[in-house]
Design goal:
Helix 2 runs parallel beside helix 4, helix 4 runs antiparallel to helix 5 and helix 5 packs parallel to helix 7. With about 190 residues, this protein is mostly helical.
């Protein structure tokens, strides 16, 4: 019985391994790029981006890219340079959302502005809970981020999976100024729609 189970387990493991190709390992130069972005070393980031064949979206062992680490640390100039070199900002991770969600949540206005400069940016992108970047900015009380997102077309009436709009997040957290901004924008948006 044990041999049959072990054999079935090994067969299943082999099939699973063959079904999903292994991620390409990042080169030393790519890991150096990721590290430079993490440290906010713009000079080093630019230097590494000049290396022929470097993958700007390479990931380290923690599955981080240079862009995601630059965003996490609020390194706006590194973010700008990485985006110019084609870094992918639209990767969706269920629990974190996209990088747009992250910068709105952290209140990194300059990084948010850089991400919103990209053509075809979906300002209303939803994470697996249905929250938009505006939900995150409202929950944290980041007025500048709220205004920037709304200037780029964020829908203040878009509800998440629980039926909550960004206004409710701001109310729940007691962000009075955010509540006032979102109420006025919601009223205006509803008037324009109908």
């Amino acid at each position: 019985m044990k041999k049959k189970f072990l054999g079935s387990f090994l067969l299943a493991l082999a099939c699973a391994t063959n079904a999903m190709p292994a991620a390409e390992k990042a080169s030393e130069a790519e890991l150096d790029l990721i590290d430079a972005a993490w440290r906010g070393d713009l000079k080093s980031v630019k230097k590494h981006l000049q290396i022929p064949g470097i993958n700007v979206d390479a990931k380290n062992v923690d599955d981080d890219t240079a862009l995601s680490l630059a965003v996490i640390n609020g390194e706006a100039e590194c973010v700008r340079v990485l985006l110019v070199h084609g870094a992918d900002a639209d990767v969706l991770e269920c629990d974190q959302g996209t990088l747009l969600h992250m910068v709105a949540r952290k209140g990194y206005i300059i990084c948010l502005e850089e991400l919103l400069k990209r053509p075809l940016t979906n300002v209303n992108v939803q994470d697996c809970y249905g929250n938009t970047p505006l939900h995150h900015a409202a929950a944290k009380g980041h007025i500048e981020c709220i205004l920037e997102l709304m200037q780029h077309g964020a829908d203040v009436t878009l509800a998440n999976n629980d039926g909550q709009v960004p206004l409710q997040f701001a109310e729940l957290k007691g962000h009075v100024a955010c509540v006032e901004i979102l109420q006025a924008a919601g009223k205006k948006q509803l008037e324009e729609q109908g």
